[in-house]
């Protein structure tokens, strides 16, 4: 199958082929299945074969602080950040996790002292990623607890952890910390800090603790690999300890797959950049594929929203991207859509139209908002646009 999914050229025919029997269109989860098409187009380049004798040991690199990190994955992480220019890796420890979700818990464990009487407050500015409160409080830890919106946080002078998600899930904006006092530690969640979603500006991000994942970068949510770039060796050691206590490491098979996938992405970018100034073709470059799809999906959505007169969407200022040498505004992985006028329950409104979205209330915001995944397969996304146009 062709790897290039430029909806601009295919949307009309694809739309005619779609028979919409009023089926349920589920855009509630952020499942990144849009990327399946790209990877189908790469043939065997990203395939790996793992013989039966491999991975009998728990250990991957016993001499390394993160002893379960596969060295090849560590190398490919450093290489990819170097090519994209989104984060400094020099002087950082890499801790691998079962998705960045496990790393999030590992960070909380590492940052919150064992001997506290009051749990450390965990905050993020609303609207925040809906998993932060539920993941933080799922075991009712005595070490930390969810304390809500960072913008209105009043935790006295107690310690806190502020999660800075940039671009943000759900609203797609770039963010800086908002709690204006000392005594806190920042954790940057950069799941979406990749050039298909936002411009890579210089210098590369240089934070103390930054979380990344293959889920939204290459689209491999199902292999469950994330990584943290951590400046402080002690924090990295405690995060490693948490993962040891939690799952005695991270699947080697998944790490090897992630390493191979990242290698294929980086190889294509390097080959493309050797061939001149023009962006590499979307058939070869994952980031170009992602960029063109996001651009087209956002164009279709904005058009349908404008035509309906019922909704509004955020506007994102254009910035120059050092990676793909274009100026563009964010094209987020989620649409943060507001029902205008009298519709109070936006999720309920869409549910009646058999479109499943996630209400703003899950993100600490108003039910007039919904979050809609922009990363689903072409047929589902186009069915959504078609139904939106018919409202
Ligand atoms: N952080 C943010 C902001 C996310 O949106 C997601 C995925 N929805 C994650 C973390 C979790 O990613 P992973 O699949 O790596 O656990």
Automatic annotation (TrEMBL):
Record's keyword annotation contains Transcription regulation: no
Keywords: Aminotransferase, Pyridoxal phosphate, Transferase
Domain Alliinase C-terminal stretches: 25-390
Keyword check for Transcription regulation: no
GO annotation (BP), single: amino acid metabolic process
UniProt GO MF annotations: carbon-sulfur lyase activity; transaminase activity
Names of the cofactor(s): pyridoxal 5'-phosphate
Annotated InterPro entries: Alliinase_C, Alliinase_N_sf, Ethylene_sulfur-biosynth, PyrdxlP-dep_Trfase, PyrdxlP-dep_Trfase_major, PyrdxlP-dep_Trfase_small
UniProt superkingdom: Eukaryota
Similarity section: Belongs to the alliinase family.
Subunit organization: Homodimer.
Name of the molecule in the record: Alliinase C-terminal domain-containing protein
Organism: Linum tenue
């Amino acid at each position: 199958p062709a790897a290039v999914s430029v909806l601009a050229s295919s949307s009309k025919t694809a739309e005619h082929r779609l028979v919409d029997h009023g089926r349920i269109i589920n855009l509630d989860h952020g499942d990144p299945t849009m990327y399946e098409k790209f990877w189908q187009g790469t043939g065997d380049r990203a395939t790996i074969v793992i013989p039966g004798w491999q991975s009998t040991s728990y250990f991957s690199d016993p001499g390394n602080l993160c002893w379960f990190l596969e060295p090849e994955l560590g190398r490919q992480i450093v290489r990819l950040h170097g090519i994209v220019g989104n984060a400094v890796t020099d002087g950082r420890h890499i801790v691998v996790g079962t998705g960045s979700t496990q790393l999030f818990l590992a960070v909380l464990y590492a940052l919150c002292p064992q001997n506290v009487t009051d749990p450390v407050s965990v905050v993020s500015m609303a609207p925040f990623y809906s998993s932060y409160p539920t993941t933080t409080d799922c075991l009712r830890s005595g070490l930390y607890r969810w304390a809500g919106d960072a913008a209105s946080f009043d935790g006295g002078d107690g310690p806190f952890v502020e999660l800075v998600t940039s671009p943000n899930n759900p609203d797609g904006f770039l963010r800086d910390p908002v709690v204006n006092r000392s005594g806190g530690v920042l954790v940057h969640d950069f799941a979406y800090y990749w050039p298909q979603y936002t411009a890579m500006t210089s210098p590369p991000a240089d934070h103390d603790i930054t979380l990344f994942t293959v889920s939204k970068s290459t689209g491999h949510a199902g292999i469950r690999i994330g990584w943290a770039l951590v400046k402080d060796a002690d924090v990295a050691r405690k995060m490693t300890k948490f993962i040891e206590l939690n799952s005695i490491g991270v699947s080697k098979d998944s790490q090897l797959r992630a390493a191979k996938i990242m290698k294929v992405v980086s190889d294509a970018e390097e080959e493309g950049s050797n061939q001149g100034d023009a962006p590499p073709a979307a058939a070869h470059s994952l980031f170009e594929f992602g960029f063109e799809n996001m651009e087209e999906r956002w164009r279709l959505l904005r058009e349908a929203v404008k035509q309906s007169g019922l909704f509004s969407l955020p506007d994102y200022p254009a910035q120059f991207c050092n990676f793909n040498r274009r100026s563009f505004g964010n094209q987020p992985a989620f649409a943060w859509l507001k029902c205008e006028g009298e519709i109070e329950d936006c999720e309920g409104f869409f549910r009646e139209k058999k479109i499943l979205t996630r209400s703003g209330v899950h993100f600490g915001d108003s039910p007039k908002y919904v979050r809609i995944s922009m990363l689903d397969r072409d047929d589902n996304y186009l069915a959504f646009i078609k139904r939106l146009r018919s409202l």
